[in-house]
Structure formats: C-alpha cells, structure tokens
Amino acid sequence: MKRIGILTGGGDAPGLNAVIRAAVKTALNEYDCEVFGIKNGYDGFLEEDGIIPLGLDTVRGILPRGGTILGAVNRGNPYTRTLIRNGKEETVNVADEVLAGVQRLGLDALLVLGGDGTLSSAHEFYKRGIPVIGVPKTIDNDIGGTEITFGFDTALNIATEALDRLHTTAESHRRVMVLELMGRDAGFITLNAGVSGGADVILIPEIPFSFESIVKKIRSRNEKGASFNLIAVSEGAKPRDGAQVYSRAGDEAFVPRLGGIGQLVAEYVEGQGYESRVTVLGHVQRGGTPTAFDRWLATRYGAAAVRLAARGGFDRMVALQKGEITDIPIADAIKEPKRVNVNSDAVITARNIGISFGDE
Ligand code: F6P
After folding, report:
1. Which residues line ligand 1 (CB under 6 A)?
2. Per-residue model confidence as pLDDT tens digits over 222-254
3. Which of 12, 140, 152, 254 to mutate to test the pocket of ligand 1 (most atoms within 8 A of CB)?
4. What residue ranges do the domains of the chain occupy?
5. How many percent of the chain have pLDDT more than 70?
6. Is the fold of 3-150+290-321 the same as that of 153-286+341-352?
7. Would you call 37 helix, strand, or coil by DSSP?
8. Is CATH 3.40.50.720 what the domain over 153-286+341-352 is classified as, yes or no?
9. pLDDT at 252
10. Which of 19, 105, 211, 248 could bridge 257 with an S-S bond, Cβ 3.0-4.6 Å?
C-alpha cells in the first residue's frame, strides 16, 4: 500500500478531523504511505486544486477542531450531481470523472468518511474498481451495522445542554418549552437527549404522535402540581395521519429541507391555553469541538480504517460492535438504515419514568 486518499462527504459531523488525523498518522507511522486529501467530498476529483497532500504538519492541532479540513458537500452523489457548468445548473453523472481522478492519482485505497448517501456511492465505486473503505459518520446515528457513529455523542450533549437551559427558564415562567432537534428519519438524538435532559414529551419519527395526547400529558402534569413542561421534538417527527413538515420544498435543485414541526406543536399547545415557546437548535448540533468520546471513537475508526485498507478489506466499513472495532460489508451497513427500536429498553425506560411519546 503506497498511496491512500481520504474524503469527507455529506453533512459534517464533529470528529471528522480526528478521523483524518488518526488515519494520516497511522498511514505514515505504520505503512510509510503517501496520503492525499480529496476536497469537498467526491467533488475534489473534478476540481482544480481539489487534491492536497496530507502530512503530519497538515493534521497537527486538528483533533479538537469541529467541521472537516477537507470540506464536505451534502447531497454530493456523483451519480446525480447538481453542478453549474457554463453558467447553467445541471444534474449530471460525474462518476467516470471520479474514477479517472482516482486512477490518475494511483490510489491503493480511498477512505470514505460519510453517511448512508456517501457510503452508497462508495459501494457503487467499488463495483467499478475503486478500492474503498467506509467510515461511518453522522450525528443522526442512523447507519446500520454499527452501534454508534462519531458525531452523535457531541450532538447529544449539545441537545441535552439546550434542554437543561430551557428547563430553568420554563420553570421560571411556567411555560411549555419546545425544542426542535435534528434527526431526519431517526430519533436517536431526540430520544437520548430527551431522557438525559428531563423532557416530559419526546416526539420522534419512529412514533407518530397526536396533538391531543401531548396536551393530555401537559394537563396531567399540571394537575399533579408541575407548572412547566419540556417537549423535545425531532425535525422528522410526524403527526398520526399527517406528514413530515418542511421549511423548504424540494425542487430540481434543492432537496426538501425539514423544519417547522416544533412551531406547529407549540402553536397547538398554546391554543389549548398553555403558553409556549419554541427553539430550533439546528446546526449548533453539528458544529464545534467534538466530545472526548467522539474524539476517542473517531481516532479508533481512523486508525482501523487504514489497517483494514492494508489488509485489502475493500468495500467494507469499520464499525463498533460490543464496544470493539470490527468491519462489515458496506452493503450491509446501507441495506437497512438504523432506526429507534420502539420496543427497546430505551423507549420502555422513558415510558416507565413517565415520558410521553404523544401516542397514548
Ligand atoms: O444527516 C445529518 C443532518 O444533520 C440531519 O439531521 C439534517 O436533517 C440534515 O443533516 C441537515 O442537512 P443540511 O446541513 O444540508 O441542512
């Protein structure tokens, strides 16, 4: 193994730089490889100056830094890439150009740090001869075959802190505070932060809710003497017989953007006589320094990905199972996205301690 490439695709997640750093150090220390960074996801293969050498000096000091030094592109699928060419926006298949870029660079392995979309593209590229290795990244924690993705713990901590802060102001003003959190189709951030931050109602995509049930919970708490309520709602949560709420509709150029369910919940609750406020935490959950846990996990993933490449374990993804790093076929990881198991001990525990999921 002489040359390795690394790219970061999809939405950024805290810990990307820690993976890059660990991969570069392992490649240089253990295998005496050359390492190249591909900028802006797969786009770097198409761009002038899209490839940069990565040495010890490049990765020095990046362990605690959020974001990615390589840049990322959300919805950067090379098979259906929206690009501006000759002043015109068009959806094109740039897979051949990516392939040519990898061959030009003479890569013996390409480490792809990404979520389900980026990993699906990686799997397709493997079929065309690119020696890919996957590293699971996403704050949503929704990739199959691994217990946890890096970035999730940081997002969870930020969301929990937000609930703690809302708690004191909710109590002072005897209000209902609604916190809208990220998690497109998976409610892990909202469930875990909701439990850790003492939410009274948790609304997640996996459990459709009714507005009446939320108010029932508030009423019953108030009858028992509580004068405030905290509601954690996932951006992807949907009412029974309803649909997910979008802040921006999709069109040819834009993927639909979720947002607004928190506002709907707050309006309904206020309409029933309970003063409410809504906070949308948004990208605060993705930015900034990773937690110690995410740095630790990201470092283990980064080093393991290089070891896997050296063993020739292509088209596989490093994963955490039973607390140990292992690897699984990328196809298995993307086959079935991970969702909150509504019968898991986590959900049962939340119900045991009186949290409502808006479904009773
Ligand atoms: O998948 C990660 C995620 O943060 C989702 O939770 C969220 O819906 C989405 O990305 C937001 O994407 P963007 O940064 O493109 O708005």
Report:
1. 11, 74, 115, 138-140, 182-184, 235, 257-258, 286
2. 999 999 999 999 999 999 999 999 999 876 666
3. 140
4. 3-150+290-321, 153-286+341-352
5. 99
6. yes
7. strand
8. no
9. 62
10. 248
The Cα-based distances of 167 to 53, 228, 244 in angstroms read 47, 8, 26
Question: In which residue are the tokens 């897979």 written?
Answer: 95
Q: What is the mean pLDDT of the chain?
A: 96
Catalytic residue among 12, 43, 116, 140: 140
Active site residue 164: no
Q: Which two tokens stand for residue 284?
A: 């605060």
| CATH code 3.40.50.450 for 3-150+290-321 | yes
Q: How far is the CA of 144 from the centre of ligand 1 (A)?
A: 18
What are 327's strand-pairing partners? 318
Cβ-count burial 101-126 (b if 16+ within 10 Å, e if not)? bbeebebbbbbbbbbbbbbbbbbbbb
3-state secondary structure of 145: coil
Q: What is the pTM of this model?
A: 0.96
Spatial contact of 186 and 141, defined as CB atoms under 8 Å apart: yes
Strand pairing of 3-8 and 34-38?
parallel
- Give the burial string for 192-215 (b: 16+ CB within 10 Å, else e): bbbbbbbbbbbbbbbbbbebebbb
**H helices present in 211-272, as ranges:** 211-223, 261-271
